[in-house]
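To the team - fe (ii) ion complex, inputs and output below.
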Amino acid sequence: MTTISEKVQQPKSTQSKTQVNKRAMNFPASWYIAMHSKDLGKKPIAIELFGQSLVAWRDQNNHPVIMDPYCSHKGASLAIGKVVDGCIQCPFHHWRYDSSGKCVYIPDVENIPPMARQTTYVTAERYGCIWVWYGTQTPLFSLPEFPSAEDERDNYMPVREVTKVNTPLQEAIENAFDYCHLTTVHKMQFSGPLQFTLLHEQHSVEQSEPPIQKDAWFGYVCKLPLYRRKGIIGAFSRALGFSAEFSTVRVDLWPNGFIFTNGTDDKVIYKELASATPVAENKINLMRLVLYKKPGNFLLDRPYISLIHWRIQATIAEDLPIWNTIKPSAGKVHVKNDWLILKFRKFYQNWVDKVE
Ligand code: FES
Ligand SMILES: [Fe+2]
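Output:
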């Protein structure tokens, strides 16, 4: 468990050019969590994102930089270089590049060729996460708002997770819309039909601003009617606050990630900020920041949160064997229960089409 960092950086207007065929990858233009802030120190590190090798490092202001790792001189990897005077220095002939990717120093050379530069991605740092914008030269929407990780963080216990999944990005995100699998895979039982409200389609009736900029937002609330458990398990559940009539799930999605709020009736149990970040075409890192609401009892907080954490991890473990072996292109037939997935697909495709 870690504390949440609040460093925020205005994105730099740099370019993200790539040799790979972006459209073929089917990733949407969006903000992705590249890594948790704690995983990037002073030393440059090699990372893989969007099917590319990249280098991540921090400049003199501690701002994260993500750039093409192969030096414009002779192609040495900057990931084994070092940061000198706020610039990344190539290990081979010591050319130095600033955070915009421009070469600013070559030993014994006065006129630096204008082509001496590295392509960089737009980055930002917030909620203890390093974010990277993919798909267009400048971001098309702002970072999601997740105030619980900032203003209200004393009320929550944060846990950061990275889960590696061998599945296409779209599949990992669609799981948030696949209600049929709750009963088949996760063995959940409900006492009646699930009730959905699509928030982005009726936003005028919402009091507060959505946490994601309007056209990049897909939001819904689902009320899941619960059985009232009897006996000892029922009494135990009620003592832990699981005795509600409904479990309520609110999901606020941007094209590759979501803010998930889970509770019972009016009580929040946990909130989660998650990004499905592609390492390559069928390889995803699920980057998650889970905020467990503390019951407010010093003795009870840890066991209560451990129990919920264990339950969530067990649920993900149930999904993994399916994700890791799925071939989505083979699935073509849909039924009425798939309506929410199909709606999401349109939204997702719209953001894939924006990739330049
Ligand atoms: S290869 Fe990088 S400075 Fe020569
Ligand atoms: Fe699932």
